[in-house]
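Next up, sample data:
>
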Amino acid sequence: MDRTRRGASTEEMFLKATNDAVNYTNSRFIFGTGAMYSRVMIYTDQLYAKEQVRQGKFEDCLPYFATHEIDKSLHVGMFHHTLVWAKYLSHIVSLASLLQAQSHQWFMVHMNTEHHEYHSPGNPLVLPLLKRTAAMPNYLDQRHSCIRVCRDAGIKPLDYDQFSWSGHHTVEGQQCFGSHVVKMFSKRGLL
C-alpha cells in the first residue's frame, strides 16, 4: 500500500511505517525519505470528546495528517542538524528492529538529502547510530540520494527554477535513481 503524502514529514513516515510494521507480517516495505528540516507533523482531528476517529482502522486517521512548515532559522534548536540526524537515525534503528521481528523485507533510501547535511558525524548523539545504520544492507544513506544521483547525471528536477536541486524529480530522474538503487541493492545481495 502506498502511504506517501506530498509534503509529509519524516516523522509522519516513521509513524505510518511503525503502525504498518506492527499490523502486518511478512510484507515488503520501501521507504523514501524526503525533507528532514522545517516540516513538522500535525494531526488535525479535533480534541478529546470532539475527536472524530475514536475507533476503526488506521486508514481512518490518514486524512487528519498534515504538515506545518516552519522556518528552521527561527527555531534553530528544534532543527539543529545534529538533533535532526540523531532522531532520524534512531528511528531507523528502532524501525529496523521491528521490521526484522515481524519478518518484513525492507529498503530505505533518501530522496533529497545531501551527503553533507550532518556536519558532526563524530558527535556522540550521532556516531553510534551512524555505525549501526552503516552496517544495515537495507539502508542506502544520503550519499546515494536521488538528488545526488540526478545531479551527478545532470538531470534537473521538474521545478528546478523554484527549488533548485531540491525540487521534485522527473520521470527521467526517477528512472535514473531507480536504476542506481537496484544496482546498489543487487551489489548487497538483496535483489
